[in-house]
Every structure is written in structure tokens, then in C-alpha cells.
Amino acid sequence: MKRLLLCYLILLPAMAFSQDFLDQFPFRQQTQYFDFRCKRNSPQIPEIARFADGFIKLVNHDFFKAQFDYPIRVLVLEDRARFKEFLVRELHISDPPNFGIYLPRYKLFATYEDSGWGTFTHEILHPLVEGNLQHRPLWALEGIPTFFEKFYGYWKGNDLVVYWGFQNPWRIEQLGTNLTRLDLRKVISDPEPSNGFTAIERQESSWRMGSMFLWEQGRFNRFLQLIATHNKAGYPTYFEAAMEMPLEKILPLWQTYLNQAAAQRAKILLLPNSKILPDEAAFQSFVKANYLSLEQPKQQN
């Protein structure tokens, strides 16, 4: 599902925010980590709320300490049109995104009912990365959240079981013929500002490939832990420290990874949207129907 990102970086003047609009959200559901305010009593909200808490616990357990001044407020609109109209009218965002936006000043995430699981995970990762991985390189400000936007899983009791490492079809499509020519040096260097949403999205898609490569090499978790401890292990970059080798030795592995992704392009473009199934049996049926591989590289810490 295509999304417009870099929403986290939007900072609004204090006068643009008013508590008055909360009266427009009469339905409320509070969880351990979130305060959901909804326009209507939709049957989707309990499912979204359950997933939200489960996701925070999963990040905290499997990736890095997800400490934050909880709860995070979530405003849920009915649909995309009303979501965008609300952002323009109430928050004075002249060019609103298509799926979701996190406003750090107010600990507020706004979205709509059918925006998708990937929207939620991506945007919620922004405050968690900012608060817990403060030494992350600039490219990882989006490179880490974008990694979490594609997944499949199921509920096992009250716990989420999630499989990661899937390419995002629209990002691969967007990179096009540039995919095999992505320069890793540029991907992990301080990014130059891009103008226009298409250029911004393409930049983010290249950053996602950086995180995906680390995951495929079994080094994504190590990357996160090194950032959390502010430890480059003697290397110039966290990327090299995670791989435990200089960039010159990484480059051939990177090119092989890009070539393999390009070769699988047709299959990648058929991948379904991120999804959480009610139980393992339903999940296995979904996996079989969509010809998904559940192979997960062992991650080093």
C-alpha cells in the first residue's frame, strides 16, 4: 500500500493545536500504551487497540527498549477523505499525507480506520526511535520505521507472532531500474534534502533497502543495539559496525542482495498487504494461499 512518509518531521506552531477538536471524537478506548479517540464506535477499533499494545510489547522484547512517556494519543477518523480534511481544518496541514501522521510535540498519531497495519507500525516507530535510539544516523530516522511497515503474523493467546523481512511492493516498483544501482555509500551517508513527495519516497525506499539488507544478513538487531549503546565498535559507521567489516567488503554483498531483489521483482509485486491473522491455523492458510516464505535469518545482537 502506497504511503506518503516523512510525516514525523512536521512540527506545528503551538497555536495550531487546540484541545477543542477532541470533542469531535466521542468514542474512547484506553490501553496500556495508547489513548484511542474515535469518530465512531467502529468494530475495528478494539482490534486496532489490541494490535497496538501487542506491537509495543513485541518491539520491546525483540528489538529494543521501547521506553516512552505513554500513553500515545491516537485519533481515528472514518476514512481517508475525512482524515485529510481534518488535518487541513484543525491542524492547518496544507498538504496532508495519505495514511497517517505522527505529531511529536503532542504525542499524537492521526490516521483512519482502513489505513492499514503498516501505517500504524511505521508511524509509531518514529517516537520510539527518537526516544530510544537517539544516536541513530540520519538515514535511519526513516530507514528503521520503514523496515517495520511490512509483515505477516498471528495472535498466540495475547501475544503477537510476527514474521519480518518482506519487501514492500510499491517501494520496489518505485525504485524501478534504479534498484540494482543503489549506491550504499549514499544510502547510509547524511541525506541531502529532497524536493517533492516522489523524490522523498524514493529516498525513503532506498533507506528501507539498507535496513532490509541488514536484516537479511542477520545484523539488523545488532545495528539497533549498537545505536542504543552508542557504540560503533571502532568503525566509522553503525552500519559497518553491525556488519563487522569495512564498507569495501560489504559492497559485493550489497550488490548481490540488490540483484536478488530485482530478480524476484515479479513475485514481490504480488505480495499482499501486511496482515495479522486471528490464530496460527488461519495464518498458515494465508501463507499457503499467498506462497509466502517464513524463513527468518537468525539475528545477531
Could you characterize what this model shows?
The structure is a single chain. It contains twelve helices and eight strands. The two termini are 31 Å apart. The N terminus is likely disordered. The protein folds into two domains: 132 residues, 3-Layer(aba) Sandwich (Glutaredoxin); 165 residues, no CATH class. The radius of gyration is 19 Å and the shape is globular. Strands 1-2-3-5-4 form a five-stranded mixed β-sheet. By secondary structure, the chain is an alpha/beta fold. Strand 2, helix 1 and strand 3 form a beta-alpha-beta unit.
Quickly count the helices: 12
The biggest beta sheet reads: 5 strands, mixed
**How many domains, in number, for the residues?**
2
Percent range of helical residues: 40-55%
Q: Please tell me what the overall shape is.
A: globular
Distance between the first and last residues' Cα: 31 Å
Low-confidence stretches: 1-18
String of helices and strands: EEHEHEEHHEEHHHHHHHEH
Radius of gyration: 19 Å
Output the strand order for the largest sheet: 1-2-3-5-4
Strand content: 5-15%
Task: Give the overall average pLDDT.
Answer: 89
Assembly state of the chains shown: single chain
Q: Structural class from helices and strands? A: alpha/beta
Annotation, overall tally of beta strands: 8
Quickly list its features.
5-stranded mixed beta sheet, 3-stranded mixed beta sheet, 8 strands, Glutaredoxin, disordered N terminus, single chain, 301 residues, alpha/beta
